[in-house]
Amino acid sequence: MGRPGYVTVPILTVLAAIGYVYYTTVFLAIPAWLGLTTAAGGANAAAFTALAAACVATYAVAVSRDPGRVPASFVPDVEDAESPIHEIKRKGSDLRYCQKCSHYKPPRAHHCRVCKRCVLRMDHHCIWINNCVGHENYKIFLVFILYAVIACFYSMVLIIGGAMHLPKDEQPGSDSPRTSIVSSPGRMFQLPANQTPTEILV
Ligand SMILES: [Zn+2]
Ligand SMILES: [Zn+2]
After folding, report:
1. Is residue 156 part of a domain?
2. Domain limits at 2?
3. Which of 38, 145, 154, 201 is the most core-located residue (most Cβ within 10 A)?
């Protein structure tokens, strides 16, 4: 009984996406806008690196931490079945029993078909961490989501800033086709001075 493993396509996709965003932000956007050697550029690169490291660390914990097992010693509190907060009461007199695991389930525990076992306070099975989100890892999962959202907005600001400063930095001394198109799209359609449109057509 256990999970299929840590090396899955969704997990590799998440790691590749983090790496791609990190590379684009720190090695393309920040150098284009602020420069990596300036105080502002270095501070932003350090802050974004710390944020990316926090993302990877919390993601690794969310992937690897056990979401919560039903203790083998768990026995339903039948004495307390009168209590209105008890799920046993709400479901009538049926005790919640997992046929596959052959044990009773506490309230809010559910059997996961992927993990092939019951998980405490199971929220859902997330393919992106190849793990259930349950009692033991939902907090770190939420912290990872929070870090990822902050990093996305931070990266977006830096990439937009870098893109806005790109043409200005490329203009002096360089006359690459890309710069020409960016700076004056009309030049793409300019004719050579010594030719008329009919000469070109002929
Ligand atoms: Zn089960
Ligand atoms: Zn699961």
Report:
1. yes
2. 1-68+127-177
3. 154
6 within a domain of the structure (yes/no): yes
* 126 part of the active site: yes
Res 107 pLDDT > 60:
yes
As beta bridge partners, residue 126 has 131
In terms of pLDDT, which residue wins out, 36 or 187? Answer: 36
Q: Which ligand is nearest to the CA of 127?
A: 2
Residues in the chain: 202
Q: How far is the CA of 80 from the centre of ligand 1 (A)?
A: 23
Q: Is residue 17 part of a domain?
A: yes
Ligand lying nearest the CA atom of residue 101: 1
Task: Find the catalytic residue in 98, 101, 112, 126.
Answer: 126
Q: How far is the CA of 85 from the centre of ligand 1 (A)?
A: 22
Over residues 38-51, the mean pLDDT reads: 96
C-beta separation of 80 from 179 below 8 A: no
Q: Which of 74, 62, 66, 138 is nearest to 101 (CA)?
A: 74
The pLDDT value given to residue 79: 61
For the chain, how many structural domains are there in total?
1
Q: Is 61 left (phi over 0), alpha (psi -120 to 50) or beta?
A: alpha
How far apart are the CA of 127 and the centre of ligand 2, in A?
Answer: 9
Residue 142 lies in a domain: yes
